[in-house]
Amino acid sequence: MVPEHIGFIMDGNGRWAKARLLPRTAGHLAGLKALKRVILACIDEGVRYVTLYCFSTENWKRPADEVNYLMGLFSEKIMGEKPFYDANGVRLLTLGDVGVLPADARDSLLEAVEATKGNDRILVQLAINYGGQDEICTAVNRALAEGIGTITPEVIRAHFDNPFIPPVDLIVRSAGEKRLSNFLLFDSAYAELVFCDRLWPDWGKDEVRSAIAEYESRDRRFGGLKK
Ligand code: FPP
Q1: What is the DSSP letter of 159?
Q2: Distances in Å between the alpha carbon of 20 and those of 13, 14, 207, 223?
Q3: Which of 8, 34, 185, 188 allows an S-S link to 203, with CB 3.0 to 4.6 Å?
Q4: CA 136, CA 8: separation in Å to the nearest integer?
Q5: pTM of the model
Q6: Confidence class of residue 227 from pLDDT cuts 50, 70 and 90?
Q7: Residue nearest to atom 13 of ligand 1 (CA)
Q8: ∠ CA(84), CA(174), CA(29), 5° rounding?
Q9: Which residues are catalytic?
Q10: What is the pLDDT, as a whole number, of residue 220?
């Protein structure tokens, strides 16, 4: 069965650029183009939810020019893709604390969320200033602030940014590293993991198809026994 929700760790932009003697930022721009190919491929496959790891709570440690470039992509490129979202039924949401981003990046993300809220073919969560540990702590603190005294997995999930989005079924990471890097820690409890050596800017339909094929070959038991 096709996964309902796929999370992508879009790694390898820097290496892709380095291999071409280009600045790392050129890799991020190429990564943005790959991201559109991947969204189209997910639509073709019938995937309903996609979460893209665009900027982690730890990415602030990168050199200022790289951080600024990524913030510039969020402020300048997101709304420019409105025809793409509308033509393909893409609804955008953010995941993570975008409130502390530079105002133009934050405003453009919020504008894109508002502008795409009528689209319903695929929901794309942009994880920006997102960290899985931070997500869990934020949810717990929201529950405590409401006076909820007993924290359960259901309570935590109900206090996520977008609690109506189902848990991720498949997490895919490009560029060879085999770790989660603080991505979707809570919801990855029973997610399938697929790692692929290809660098993110080289991703497209074939890589999405092969990740889904690997997912479909797995036997998901969620801690139970094989049916
Ligand atoms: C990781 O590769 C990639 C990122 C930290 C940024 C991902 C962002 C995008 C693809 C652009 C998203 C833009 C919008 C507008 C949604 P890396 O830099 O760690 O690569 P490396 O491991 O080869 O150095």
Answers
A1: T
A2: 11, 10, 21, 45
A3: 34
A4: 19
A5: 0.96
A6: low
A7: 32
A8: 45
A9: 11, 59
A10: 86
- Mean pLDDT computed over 19-30: 98
Enumerate the β-bridge partners of residue 128.
55
pLDDT tens-digit series, residues 158-192: 999 999 999 999 999 999 999 999 999 999 999 99
Query: CA torsion, points 158, 216, 219, 171, in degrees to nearest 10?
Result: -40
As a whole number of angstroms, the distance between CA 3 and CA 9 comes to 16
Angle made by CA atoms 96, 102, 106, in degrees to the nearest 5: 50
Which residue has a Cα nearest atom 6 of ligand 1? 54
pLDDT tens readout for residues 122-137: 999 999 999 999 999 9
Report the C-alpha gap between 72 and 66 in whole angstroms. 10
CA of 125 to the centre of ligand 1 (A): 15
Label residue 23 exposed, middle or buried (CB < 10 Å: 0-12, 13-18, 19+): middle
The annotation status of 24 as a binding-site residue, yes or no, is yes
CA–CA distance, 219 with 47 (Å, rounded to integer)? 19
The residues near 40 (Cβ < 8 Å, ≥ 6 apart) are 88, 205
The answer to whether residue 18 scores a pLDDT higher than 80 is yes
Q: What is the maximum span of the chain, computed from C-alpha positions, in angstroms?
A: 55
